[in-house]
Design brief:
Protein name: Drug/metabolite transporter (DMT)-like permease
Helix content: 55-70%
Subcellular location: Membrane
Order of helices and strands: HHHHHHHHHHHH
Number of domains: 1
Largest sheet: none
Shape: globular
Pfam family, one: EamA
Main location: membrane
Family: Belongs to the EamA transporter family.
Structural class: mainly alpha
Strand content: under 5%
Length: about 325
Amino acid sequence: MPTTRKSHLDPFAIALLLACCMFWGFQQVLVKATMAEVPPVFQACLRFAVSSLAVAAWCRWRGVRLGLGSEPAGAWRFGLLAGALFAAEFACIHAGLQYTLASRLTVFLYSAPFWVALLLPRFVPGERLRGWQWLGLACAFAGMALALGEGLFRHPAGSAYPLGWFGDALGLLAGLLWGLTTVVIRTTSFARVAPEKQLLYQVGVSAALLPLVSIALGEAWALDFSAFAAGSLLLQALVGGFASYLAWMWMLAHYPATRMSVFVFLTPVFALLFGAWWLGEPLSAGLLAAMALVGTGIVLVNRQPAVQTQQKPA
């Protein structure tokens, strides 16, 4: 049965997006808090290994066929490409958290909507943004810049991170990789693969590739975790790597990606709040103004054009 795509975000999609963004903001802080016990990329290895099992079980329960013969010809190649991009994104995120603040890395990571907005319309004309929507996108990013400006340029904790620029660069690269993953999913035959199977490609390839990255970085592997570390890894795997991404993949198949993408600007706000609460990362005085800008940007990007009266044919 063909997938029905909507031209706007309904209240259910908005609520789901907000829940995902809140958890993703918390997740960056959770990964950093767990680094004292579990090396960052090794965390990602374990996370996606468990996520792969959960997604595979979900596919079997939902009757999603996993064989290559059940998908469009050649789609598996794009699935592997999407999986490799996804794995590289998370290698950059987890490695980058060693060198910079969680909130600081997150603002660079969430440059992804700009890459989507710039690249996707070249392949999907219906995803083009109008002038006021570009204004909304710029408004949302201005909010992020305001909220995290101190952390980016004159943060008091900057001396504690002498290689902070490297962490920032990894965050920016991760944002580009995320944007490219979205473009691959939307513009190739991989778009006709079930969302659950799309996610399985991404977490499965990541589970296969990230151990190699962890070994290359010289990370120590151990499975003797505290209750906190075990709970953190399960939360990252089952909520972060399974439920929230499955929801995101489903929404990509039903709603406009460019309108969805602007919501992710809320994630750095949540990361800033959780980082201040848990890790003691400084809370910007401009946060309330930033939230107002982000809210304005979301309204502008999701604003629907006025319905024009159609004339009857002569």
